[in-house]
Amino acid sequence: MIDEGLEMNPCEVSWFSALCDDDYEFLGVAEPRLQSSWEHCRDLVLQSESLGFDNVLCPSGYALGIDTTAFAAAISTWVRRIRLLVALRMGESWPPQLARQIATIDQMLGGRLAINIISSDLPGETLESGPRYARTIEAMAILRQLLDGEAIDHDGQFWKVKTAPPRVAPVSGRCPQFYFGGLSEHARDAAAKGADVYLMWPDTLPAIRDTIADVRARAAKEGRTLRFGYRVHVVVRETEEEARAAADRLVSKLDDHTGARIRANSLDSRSAGVRRQAELREASGGEYVEDNLWTGIGRARSGCGAAIVGDPDQVLAKLNAYRAEGIEAFILSGYPHAAEADLFARHVLPRLDHAPLA
Length: 358
Fold this sequence. Notes:
By secondary structure, the chain is α/β, with parallel strands linked by helices. Helix content is about 40%, strand content about 20%. Strands 1-2-3-4-7-8-9-13 form an 8-stranded parallel barrel, surrounded by 8 helices. It has a two-stranded antiparallel ribbon with strand order 5-6. The radius of gyration is 19 Å and the shape is globular. The mean pLDDT is about 90.
């Protein structure tokens, strides 16, 4: 139960622009009109802005979809209010050049940029978890120093950088916020050392509570504090029966072979977070692992593998339960993304106390 007297800060509510070929009417059934393109992803961002969302995630994948940095630069000239959460893959970038790109896009947005740090491999390369996250920690430190306007003389394991900051700077004069997710020990340590917002994929409320406590303690040892975010799908309808029927319809044309192939397409298909999503799905038999948290959507996704399913009151209550645990930012999505964004914006968003994460 949520303490009725509990005061909670406004939460940031973000939607999702499907840059990585991740939009369906029926999971596993590709439709040309829903595949990633400039036009389709642009329309999702513009719709998110018009519906009142605070932010929109622009995801990144090497093998799938369209390029995130190029898309973010282009869409920055179209939007007027919404923030962009741009996913950037640390294994594919030279940090000083990336700092200049970030600062330029932030200028184009008028200071409304945040960065989703992805601890990726370089395509064609595979690093063990420890070195890969060590490289990400190093990248975040270089980026933060340059984007804070400081010259750098860095002699690290992965990069040696001695340079002045780029002339173009973020509007605030400070580095944009780093959102970062990962469930492994190495990932949690990386978040504690370099992130601003620690993102989690769906899990049970007790597990969310434990993860927040653990990562908060790790950050405290580094002399830092973190905020917490939650990435989850939603299926909201006027009644719970209709919502559950919509969830069942979504996977009604999906076979196990197709689902396994889609999950394997992702470069992070063996990560600790992905394993946890699979554990939840197996424990629930692809059904509900706790009240209103449906794992069936993970049959065709390697990452975020569960959805909040219910009527408006149930979806709102679930989000508020996460907020009571310390979640301050939600990154939501649904299938197809445009239709589900409209439903959520009509039924739930006006009832949430929400604002961009300052």
